[in-house]
Amino acid sequence: MGADPITLLLAGFTFFDVSFIAMASIVSALVMRRWSQITGAALLAYGVDVLLRFSLEYASAGDMPANFAFQLAITRMDMNGLAATLRPFLYFGAIALLFGLKRRYTR
Fold first, then answer.
1. Which of 29, 49, 63, 76 has the fewest Cβ atoms surrounding its Cβ within 10 A?
2. pLDDT-based confidence at 15, cuts 50/70/90?
3. Per the structure, how many domains does the chain have?
4. pTM of the model as a whole
5. Residue (of 44, 65, 57, 74) closest to 16 by Cα position
């Protein structure tokens, strides 16, 4: 019998992941002006997240070729597939929540 989905989901997020999602969502929500910009803001934040993950793998690897560092970054995302699949939706939800709070309290 396998592990339950909640355990698999929580295993896929480190403190760095959660803090980066929070910080990127705050910045994206502050930059947004209209609700129609949420798709671009979430995809941009997710893209920066993926590029940052690859850059950190590449920088910490020393004399590793770029394709091996990319493979390592993708493998780490594959090991926690549920968390990697949920990550873009977390960006959408967090940015929407923060933008809604910003719109409500800045009036």
1. 63
2. confident
3. 1
4. 0.77
5. 57
